[in-house]
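To: structure subgroup
Subject: Chain for Friday's discussion

All,

I'm putting the inputs and outputs inline so they're searchable in the archive.
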Amino acid sequence: MRSHLSHCFWLLVALCFLYRRAAAAPRLPVRAVNLGGWLVTEGWILPSLFDGIPNKDLLLVSVQSDGSVVATATSPGKSETFRLVRNAGKDRMQIMAPNGLFLQANKDSTVTADYGKSTSWGDDDPSVFAVTRVTGLQGEYQICNGYGTAKATPILKNHWSTYIVEDDFRFISKSGLTAVRIPVGWWIASDPSPPAPYVEGSLQTLDKAFKWAEEYNLGVIIDLHAAPGSQNPFEHSASKDGSQDWGTSAANIAQTVQVIDFLASRYAASPSLLAVELLNEPLAPGASLESLKTYYRDGYNAVRKHSSEAYVIMSNRLSSPDPTELLEFAGGLSRTVIDVHYYVLFNSMFDTFTVQQNIDFIKTNYSSALSTVTKQNGPLTFVGEWVAEWQVPNATKEELQMLANAQMDVYGKATFGWAYWTLKNVNNHWSMEWMIKNGYISLKN
């Protein structure tokens, strides 16, 4: 009798586990929301994060008595005053330090103020710097570098613990959404000792997110939003200066695969793990198709090493002339998804569109584009980012409802589903929370 009861007990436990796993895995297509600006900083989403940085970007650079160059000063002084000497074309410059010598880049990757020779402005001169003007970047690199580790750590930990909380997951589930797409940065795999200037703590926050997702039966899409070297020059890839260096070497690709392996290993057992997105918005031509396919295959294998069930999402390249370039490749693998992002923004042609022109573009152009990548025997399709925002001035609530509904109707045909960008934002229309609470978006149908 005792043995029989014991067997019944363990059978009940097993059934409960299976029920929990089944309940936590949403049916496709999903209706999801991005948790943007949480674990990967984007200043435009919450500008106040940068309020404590005097110039909103970087610390002041200064020269120490031994000629070394550091970025630790918080107020300008003599040692932070440099003279810029430009060439005739003004596309190159030398930087003269307060000691009368020029800064030079050394072979050991340090910069020192100890170069006193004349220059011909050639590439072989370590004191000559190319001038590229980059403004407006407010990403993870800038916030960590701008505050410095000591200050950035408590600021970001407070942000992570207050910006998205358990009650948000409750709201997401109650509103009729079935999944969350969570952007993460590559440094999360090195937590609690990430490389400078990044700070520790985001991994523990992601752990909490999975716990909350399990509690409220939400699927989780882990999205590698920022890869080492940056897969595009934008702040959301944590580009340090607008450069794009991801995928330019085998070592870089291998490093990125290690991040995916770490994440898949850590969360494969969670009933809420729905998918791993290998990379967000790689930009062509900097991210070559050859490098991307190499990485996607290795990243896919890294996920499959730990999970046969999790979907593997592969983002299309931004600015690629061929939206179908990954279909055959991804179609040869199991449980794969192609991610496309559709906005009626970020292109000058939308600047003068009327309400009806925007709606028509979505129902015609984006509907056709989605059909082009949605094949019966191919990978699933996912509109991983969209928003009910446009360039129409003074749009009414009814017009914005039309915009949201048109997109949900069209993107609802994506076989994997869609995800709104983003849950919270100081710009109301970019905040799905605000849009739902104020009646602009309804998911109760």
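Points worth raising on Friday:
The chain has eleven helices and 15 strands.
Confidence is low (pLDDT under 50) at residues 11-22.

D.
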